[in-house]
Amino acid sequence: MYLKSHRLLLAAAMALAAMVSSLPAPARADIYRYEDPEGTVHFTDAPTDNRFKVFMRDIKKDKKLRTAFKLPGYARNPAEFEPIITSCSRQYGVDSSLVKAVIHAESGYNPSAVSPKGAQGLMQLMPKTAQGLKVADSFNPSDNIRGGVRYLRFLLDTFKGNESLALAAYNCGLGSVAKYGGIPPYPETQTYVTKVLSYRNNYR
Question: What is the CATH number of the domain that holds 160?
Answer without folding.
Answer: 1.10.530.10
